[in-house]
User: Fold Acetyltransferase from Sphingorhabdus contaminans.
Amino acid sequence: MKSNRVGIFGTAGMAREACDVAMALGLSPVLVSKDKSESGLLDFDTIPEANIHHYLDMPYVIGIGECALRAKIAARYGKIISFTNLIHPSATFGDRQIEKIGNQKGVIICAGVRFTHNIEVGNFCIFNLNATISHDVVIGDFVTISPQACLLGNVEVQEGTWIGAAAVVNQGCEISKRIIGRNTVIGSGAVVLDNCDSDATYVGVPARRIS
Ligand SMILES: CC(C)(COP(=O)(O)OP(=O)(O)OC[C@H]1O[C@@H](n2cnc3c(N)ncnc32)[C@H](O)[C@@H]1OP(=O)(O)O)[C@@H](O)C(=O)NCCC(=O)NCCS
Assistant:
């Protein structure tokens, strides 16, 4: 009989959010902790990362909000284990969008997330509770979209970028998307009106670069 377990890297808040998604799908989450000391402190079955070779029969996701750490884990285990997507049944999707996301791996979509249509999503992206992703958006690998963040239409969020809770990225246009560069952080509650550089942090309304 096929196991209904799913491995979830991480033991902090994002891993627990991923557990909720797994359970809503009727799956049994197994957390993967960094070291043995974390085992037993948690409400869920937990295995230490060092023992992962004994658990190759289940698919995995990476329940860690930090984009760079997700990238590291994906690189470390990409050839050894299989990664799946976890999509909460309450998330909604526009025309053919769910099929498109189905071609990716390691994507976690929490309760209440809304995708409209013609949206490209990279691998290992996280869409936290109630985020809204509008039409013609392009999202690179390892992007984290925090709760209630809103990407309006024709936005591009490049690889490794973190959009904070309730941040809004205003729309670009069909011939020129609004671009948020690679490895950038957009603070909670920010309203982004212009393109944002790579490797930078922006906060406030309107968003301004602070580092
Ligand atoms: C943007 C962020 C990463 C900055 O963190 P940081 O680098 O530690 O920055 P600091 O806290 O030192 O703040 C630096 C300055 O930016 C301001 N600032 C920080 N975050 C801000 C925000 N979200 N909105 C407005 N101003 C903010 C601080 O007041 C401070 O201003 P000052 O220099 O005038 O005193 C962080 O504040 C943030 O918003 N994180 C997102 C949280 C989130 O969405 N979590 C989701 C979890 S699921």
The chain has a mean pLDDT of 95. The pocket of coenzyme A is lined by residues 65, 128, 146-147, 164-165, 185, 187-189, 201, 203-204, 210 (CB under 6 Å).
